[in-house]
């Protein structure tokens, strides 16, 4: 949209022009404050998602060791081990598969695991690999996952909590830019 189009307003069906705001207008300060707050909130969300993933992995690990019987009904649902009765979301399914993997997964591995465990989720997609790649990239944008290159140079994704554990001075993760 051009500056001219952006400066137009529609009043009673008539377009009126509005002069551009000066660079030092109070609105610029409000926008800067809003931008900083949004940046901080997005970082908090990423940190929360990372912590949620770590806690869920801990609970799932204990359930794997001692059986699902040690978990209450509510906890089973919270860690995605009990069907909720509704269709599982595609993004949610990707989160679960990455959290449970504990290592980087290529898109074909995510697809294969989803086909085994949640085939109904894949049925709604004409091109599951493209859909999965899009969702996995969004999880990277949200700060919930990391994108990296595997040993063969192929792209893989890893849950953020796992990536933090795996990235040590002896074992750095090669991030894909």
Overall geometry comes to extended
Number of helices: 8
For this structure, the CATH topology of the domain at 44-166 is Arc Repressor Mutant, subunit A
CATH superfamily of the domain at 44-166: Winged helix-like DNA-binding domain superfamily/Winged helix DNA-binding domain
CATH architecture of the domain at 44-166: Orthogonal Bundle
CATH top-level class of the domain at 44-166: Mainly Alpha
How many strand elements?
5
Q: Biggest β-sheet, characterized?
A: 3 strands, antiparallel
Distance between the termini: 30 Å
| Spans where pLDDT lies below 50 across 5 or more residues | 1-9, 167-177
Mean pLDDT figure: 78
**How would you spell out the order of helices and strands?**
HEEHHHEHHHEEH
Rg calculated over all Cα atoms: 22 Å
The strand order across the widest sheet is 3-5-4
The fraction of residues in strands falls at: 5-15%
- Helix content estimate: 55-70%
Structural class: mainly alpha
Describe, in plain words, how this protein is organized in 3D.
With about 180 residues, the protein is mostly helical. It has a domain at about 45-165: Arc Repressor Mutant, subunit A (Orthogonal Bundle). The protein contains eight helices and five strands. A three-stranded antiparallel beta sheet has the order 3-5-4. The protein has a two-stranded antiparallel ribbon with strand order 1-2. It is extended, with a radius of gyration of 22 Å.
